[in-house]
Write a structure and sequence with these properties.
single chain, 193 residues, mainly alpha, 3 helices, 82% helix, rod-shaped
Length: 193
C-alpha cells in the first residue's frame, strides 16, 4: 500500500493533465467546427448568388422569347390581313397588331419580373446562409472558450486535489497570517465621505 500511496499524487497529476489536454482539444475542435460551418455557409451563399445570376439570365431569355413570339404573331396577323384583302392600314387590323405587341411586351415584362423575383429570393437565402455561418462560428468560439475555462478549472481543481492542500498552503513559504483575511468586497460603510 505504501508504494501505491507514493504514486497517487502522480496519478492525480496525470489525470488532471489528461483533463486539461482533453479540454483544450475539445476547444480547438469546437472552434474548428464553427469555422467549417461558416465556410460551408459561405459556399452555399456563393452558390445561391450564382443561381440568382442564372435566374436573371433565364428571365431575360424568357423576355426575349416572348418578344419574338409577339413579333411572329403580329407578322402572321399582317400576312392574314393582306391575304384577305384588308390592308394593314385598316383600323381594326392596326388595333389588333397593337394589342398583340402590347401583350408581347407584357409577357416579356412578366418573364423579367419572375427572373428578378427568383434571384431576389436566392440572394435572401445567401444572406441567411452567411448569417447562419457567422452565428455558428460565434457559437464555436463560445464553446471553445467554455472548454478552455473548464480545462483551466480542471487544472486548478486537480492541483487542489493532489495532496488535499490549498495552493496557498502548497506554495506559500512565508509565515501564516494570524488574522483571517478580509474579503475586499465586504464593505461595512458605503458612504463616500
Amino acid at each position: 500500500m505504501g508504494a501505491l500511496a507514493a504514486f497517487l499524487p502522480y496519478i492525480a497529476a496525470a489525470g488532471t493533465a489528461i483533463q486539461v489536454i482533453g479540454g483544450m482539444r475539445a476547444a480547438n475542435a469546437a472552434e474548428t467546427a464553427g469555422q467549417n460551418a461558416r465556410m460551408a455557409a459561405d459556399y452555399q451563399a456563393r452558390q445561391a448568388e450564382q443561381n440568382a445570376q442564372q435566374q436573371i439570365a433565364a428571365g431575360q431569355r424568357g423576355a426575349e422569347e416572348q418578344k419574338r413570339r409577339a413579333r411572329l404573331v403580329a407578322s402572321r396577323a399582317i400576312a392574314l390581313a393582306g391575304a384577305s384583302g384588308t390592308g394593314v392600314s385598316d383600323p381594326s387590323v392596326a388595333n389588333l397588331i397593337a394589342d398583340l405587341s402590347g401583350e408581347g411586351a407584357y409577357r416579356a415584362g412578366v418573364a423579367l419580373y419572375q427572373g428578378e423575383d427568383r434571384a431576389r429570393q436566392l440572394r435572401m437565402g445567401a444572406d441567411a446562409a452567411r448569417l447562419e455561418g457567422a452565428i455558428m462560428e460565434g457559437g464555436g468560439k463560445s464553446r471553445a472558450s467554455a472548454y478552455r475555462m473548464g480545462a483551466l478549472g480542471s487544472l486548478a481543481s486537480g492541483s487542489l486535489a493532489s495532496g488535499s492542500q490549498s495552493l496557498y498552503d502548497k506554495y506559500w513559504a512565508g509565515p501564516k497570517p494570524t488574522a483571517p483575511l478580509r474579503d475586499p468586497f465586504e464593505i461595512d460603510d458605503w458612504r463616500l465621505n
